[in-house]
UniProtKB/TrEMBL annotation:
SMART domains listed in its UniProt record: 7TM_GPCR_Srsx
Alphabetical list of PROSITE patterns matching this protein: G_PROTEIN_RECEP_F1_2
Gene Ontology CC: plasma membrane
Transmembrane segments: 27-48, 142-163, 197-219, 240-261, 273-292
Principal subcellular localization: membrane
Protein name: Odorant receptor
Alphabetical UniProt keywords: Cell membrane, Disulfide bond, G-protein coupled receptor, Glycoprotein, Membrane, Olfaction, Receptor, Sensory transduction, Transducer, Transmembrane, Transmembrane helix
Record localization: Cell membrane
């Protein structure tokens, strides 16, 4: 059979390379973290949706982030857990399933940045134009920003994955914990210059736009804090900004490492670890950093707990 016109219907996924002694602890740890991510993010979305007092632009936009975290973690963790319980030689996935998995993996990564950009825009308007904030951040504007964030991510990722799907295969092993775009086009022996150029341009533009938006927002906050004489407000703002930036930097570094190390097969296990950090740490921290740290949400959660205790 001519490999230049062939596409495998089934692929073998490398998955995590762990010892037999480490398999069960790794499985339990990932399962517990996954459960926490699901409960905290779904709980945050339900809380914001159910309470009209929280139907503010900042919290509605935050729901996009929680939705994206649920999507990305569900795309990543269950397949990894499944493969941990299967012999390495039996970790098969169909090509169609692999493409879908890769699409949602990159949709999650891209939307993480586009959603954070619209959240940064919201904070920038609130800080730079506080008097005009209600007029600018209307319900219609929030919907437009949310749709734009997801639509841009969906189209760009669709093109990215489409360029890889068109290629023929000469290999059948997915070199990663799950399917992603680099592992898809690595199945081919064809010329992948177009894939590389588009992928690199896409990544640079996305990361640069994200960093610039976040940097402008937090620099503006820093300038206002510098000019302000209210120490209590400054301390709160610095604490909030530092935690937001910490989660953002973790996401940025782990995402960059995952992409870069695809070019260095010798660091395959380091790349897989970076992918786990990318799909687990930010989704676990976001409900705490962006949600619980908010006074309004924290008060709502405490009120719910008190009501539950009083009911008993």
């Amino acid at each position: 059979m001519d490999n230049q016109t062939f596409q495998y219907s089934k692929l073998l996924v490398e998955g995590l390379q762990v010892t037999s002694q480490s398999t069960l602890p790794t499985f339990i740890l990932l399962l517990m973290v996954y459960a926490f991510i699901m409960v905290s993010n779904i709980g945050m979305m339900v809380l914001i949706s159910a309470d009209k007092c929280l139907h503010q632009p900042m919290y509605v936009l935050f729901c996009n982030l929680t939705l994206n975290d649920i999507l990305g973690t569900t795309d990543f963790v269950p397949p990894v857990l499944r493969n941990l319980l299967i012999e390495p030689s039996e970790r098969y996935i169909t090509f169609v399933e692999c493409v879908i998995q890769a699409y949602f993996a990159h949709l999650n990564g891209t939307a993480s940045h586009t959603v954070i950009m619209i959240m940064a825009f919201d904070r920038y308007v609130a800080i730079c134009n506080p008097l005009r904030y209600p007029a600018i951040m209307t319900s219609n504007m929030v919907v437009k920003l949310s749709v734009a964030a997801w639509a841009v991510a969906a189209v760009l990722v669709g093109i990215l994955i489409g360029l890889s799907v068109r290629l023929s295969h000469c290999r059948s092993v997915i070199q990663g914990s799950i399917c992603d775009n680099p592992s898809l086009f690595k199945l081919s022996c064809e010329n992948t210059v177009v894939n590389n150029v588009y992928g690199l341009t896409f990544t640079v533009v996305l990361f640069t736009s994200s960093v610039v938006c976040v940097a402008l927002t937090y620099l503006r906050i820093a300038l206002i804090c510098f000019k302000s004489k209210n120490k209590a407000t400054n301390s709160k703002a610095i604490k909030t900004c530092s935690t937001h930036l910490t989660v953002y930097i973790i996401m940025l570094i782990s995402g960059s490492v995952t992409i870069l190390l695809h070019r260095f097969p010798v660091y395959a296990e380091t790349r897989k670890l970076a992918a786990i950090i990318l799909h687990v740490i930010p989704p676990a921290l976001n409900p705490i950093i962006y949600g619980v740290q908010s006074k309004e949400i924290r008060q709502k959660i405490l009120k719910l707990f008190r009501n539950q205790i009083n009911a008993k």
